[in-house]
Write a structure and sequence with these properties.
By secondary structure, this protein is mainly β. Helices cover 3% and strands 46% of the residues. Keywords: Glycosidase, Hydrolase.
């Protein structure tokens, strides 16, 4: 089966673009890969071939970010799970690596989980120069694997013996975190014990785990994440699930508590498995206090691949009149993908002048940043991938009358709204007011020739404080140095 799949892809004439060399390892040498396929993201990570779903054990180690993910290298649909692996030095440009966890080599079902770097060697597993990287997987009990070569290959701990005994009919998706208050490790595992919820375990050595408590919530389903976020000189804990629902609360080293009666959402879209946002995890062992998250976008596919990751975002807690909320913004490293920039400033625009403003702009993959005074507007927005006949692949709309951004509430700040939009070949991500709104979408930006325009539209009148459009180059090939074109401010 494997040999026939590789042969079929090779005969199909799929060409490689600046890949790592094909590496022989036990199961699956990837075929050469065409990263320029029409709807494959040019700055969103996707696997060279096969199926990709949940983000697993994202972590940082000695200058390198590691992204593991649920992976079926043999086909374009979910099947026998492996852990795929990719690395980056900037969270933007990724390099595919050989499979990290593989059925037949590593015991268990190898489903979703998290991981950490054991910098203090509390496991006692260190034998050389590298700190152990310890990852957790398995359903209905937790299995442990560890790497002594910087996260490339993994050894089964205790021959695959489960370090956590299941307490429920179904449990899965262990995520490990450090609690500085108790100076112990915590593990959060989803289970259906009496309904949806998570079980918390604690450990001093990452290998021996004791049940600590349970947090029950009907909304909390699959792939939990538990992360400590700064807030106004202190910290609070954020507990979230696969769909991006979350609550903010406290963790006393044993139990999580929250005064919230219901969750908020990190990503304000229809978050579901196979959709545009699911199963996000935050990176562990980052060198600073920043919090970085990536999720699975399952609604995009090509001829030899299915699914991709969202563009990484930085997350933080922000106090609002309604209470603390998680806000998300693209990581600043996105600047490394910019190849050209155009800027417009201080323009008063009505419907006609707004439509004419970007008449000469042509772009395939790009980033829009805009700050707009909407006090005299009914609505405004951007038409993406327009064609001369007026067609557009997707519109992003701010409705000033209802104070909503594509249907999500977003109030102006002193009369102004800030938008940030990432447009890739099959992915669209929209941010409002520095991350108060965060939306991920799968959109097939596959316009006919000539369909690469961008249009600003206005009902009423706006004061355009600033508008910047960055062309974003492919992360799969070398890009030239950025250039800057600044338009003269208008009246």
């Amino acid at each position: 089966m494997i040999r026939s799949l590789v042969m079929a892809l090779t005969l199909a004439g799929v060409l490689g673009v600046q890949d790592t060399a094909v590496v022989e390892y036990p199961e699956f040498p990837y075929p050469v890969t065409n990263y320029q396929e029409d709807n494959r993201g040019q700055f969103h990570f996707s696997s060279r071939g096969g199926w990709m779903n949940d983000v697993n054990a994202p972590l940082y180690y000695r200058g390198v970010y590691h992204l593991y993910y649920q992976h079926n290298p043999h086909g374009l649909v979910w099947d026998t799970m492996h852990w795929g692996h990719a690395t980056s030095t900037d969270l933007v440009h990724w390099q595919q690596k050989p499979i990290a966890l593989e059925p037949g080599v590593h015991p268990g079902d190898l489903w979703s989980g998290g991981g950490v770097v054991d910098t203090g060697n509390v496991t006692g597993l260190k034998t050389g120069d590298h700190d152990p990287i310890v990852v957790y997987s398995g359903t209905n009990g937790v299995t442990v694997f560890y790497s002594l070569d910087g996260g490339n290959t993994f050894i089964s701990f205790a021959d695959g013996k489960k370090v956590v005994t299941p307490r429920a009919k179904t449990s899965r998706d262990p995520k490990v975190f450090w609690d500085p208050g108790s100076k112990r490790w915590g593990m959060v595992v989803w289970s259906d014990q009496g309904g949806n919820g998570v079980d918390f375990y604690t450990s001093s050595n990452l290998l021996d785990w004791s049940f600590a408590s349970r947090y029950q919530a009907d909304w909390l389903f699959e792939c939990p994440d538990m992360v400590r976020m700064p807030l106004d000189g202190g910290h609070q804990w954020v507990l979230s699930d696969a769909g991006g629902k979350y609550v903010v609360g406290d963790f006393d080293g044993t139990a999580f508590t929250s005064s919230w009666t219901g969750p908020q959402k990190i990503n304000q879209t229809e978050t579901r498995a196979g959709g545009s946002y699911y199963a996000a995890l935050t990176f562990t062992n980052l060198p600073t206090d920043r919090i970085v998250s990536m999720a699975w976008q399952g609604g995009n596919e090509g001829t030899i691949w299915t699914g991709n990751a969202t563009f990484p975002v930085e997350q933080r807690l922000k106090n609002t009149p309604a209470g603390p909320r998680v806000v998300s913004t693209p990581i600043p490293e996105i600047a490394t993908a910019r190849v050209s920039t155009q800027i417009w400033e201080n323009r008063t625009l009505d419907s006609r002048s707004a439509r004419q403003l970007l008449a000469g702009v042509r772009a395939d993959t790009y980033e829009i940043e805009a700050t707009v005074d909407v006090r005299e507007a009914t609505r405004f927005g951007f038409r993406l991938h327009t064609s001369p006949d007026g067609w557009s692949d997707r519109d992003v709309v701010y409705d000033a009358a209802s104070a909503t951004l594509d249907g999500t509430a977003l109030n102006p700040d002193r009369g102004k709204v800030k938008l940030r939009i990432l447009v890739d070949r099959g992915q669209l991500e929209v941010f409002g007011n520095d991350g108060e709104v965060y939306q991920s979408h799968n959109v097939n930006f596959d316009s006919l020739p000539g369909g690469d325009g961008v249009e600003l539209f206005v009902d009423g009148k706006i004061r355009l404080e600033s508008l910047t459009i960055h062309e974003l180059g492919s992360i799969w090939k070398a890009a030239g140095p950025p250039t800057l074109i600044t338009n003269i401010p208008g009246p």
